[in-house]
Amino acid sequence: MITTAQKELLTAFEEHLKKNNLSPNTIAAYVGSARLFYSMYPVMSIENLSRFRGQLIKDCRPATVNLRVHAMNRFVRFLIEYDSDMWLPLKGFHLMSVKLQKQSFSDAVISNKDYEYMKRRLKKEKKTMWYFVVRFLGATGARISELTQIKVEHLSLGYLDLYSKGGKLRRIYFPDALAAEALAWCRSKEQKSGFLFVNRQGQPISPRGIRWQLKHYARRYGIDEKTVYPHSFRHRFAINFLAKFNDISLLADLLGHENIETTRIYLTKTSKEQQELLDQLITW
Fold first, then answer.
1. How far apart are CA 240 and CA 254, in angstroms?
2. Which of 60, 90, 120 represents a domain boundary (last residue)?
3. Which residue, of 34, 116, 225, 250, has the greatest Cβ tally within 10 A?
4. Splitting the chain (284 residues) into consecutive groups of 10 residues, what average pLDDT does each group show?
5. Residue 49: which CATH number?
């Protein structure tokens, strides 16, 4: 049973994560992990944290274990910052993650061929809004929560500025060609302001609605559904960026990553890309 004091800590932790501009999904995962801990152990201590990790290893997949371990390490750092005197015994404590079997390729990412094909089909069938959803995701690296905040006014500026509660700036740039094409679309429907991607009620489309519709078009166009989801296009943006301009530090800034290690996952090619590269390179 989670106490009132623990609920207050969880609420404060959630606000802390929002101020640091973490994505809604990450916040939900981190707060959920801390809530799970309190549902299992009434007292926050080094011993109970270690027991929690042990139980996770028994019950969960390694990737889930590491997600929850990372969340608890973040929660512990928050507690010390929140009240250093009360949580002094936890200072310096760090739960160790478990070793993952590293995969040398990532196949759950849309290919360039399918990305271009999807855009062509959407444009040909005059599914213009969804064409631009795919274009903006693939050409900006925006998160789905950021995509839904783009307005016509931002197109003329060439970028969208987002500020966290802590005042941290995240800027999403729009390539000139994309902004010009989107502005022409807005002029064609006499839209001079407001959100770019809206539902029938004129409200910003929900992330869930975008995910569902992308899957729908994947099925319609015969594209592997496993590779068609919002983050897949962000991943495609990162891979294409590194292929043309190999600066992982700049990519980390563009994607809004605090830790460059998070960005390194985009260095991994799909198995098909690995095969094509070898076909080009190996001639002996």
1. 13
2. 90
3. 34
4. 90 91 86 94 92 90 87 93 86 84 63 94 96 96 92 94 75 93 96 93 91 95 92 90 85 81 70 66 62
5. 1.10.150
Give the helix/strand (H/E) hosting 121: helix 112-124
Sequence-distant (6+) residues with CB within 8 A of 284 are none
Both 133 and 233 in one domain: the answer is yes
Is 181 within the bounds of a domain? yes
Q: Name which of 200, 199, 226, 231 is nearest 215 in CA terms.
A: 226
Amino acid at 147: L
146, amino acid identity: E
3-state SS class at 268:
coil
Contact between 32 and 23 (Cβ < 8 Å): no
Residues 85 and 192 in one domain: no
Cβ atoms 31, 75 nearer than 8 A = no
Residue span of the structural domain in which 59 resides: 4-90
The number of folded domains in the chain is 2
Q: 274 and 192 share a domain?
A: yes
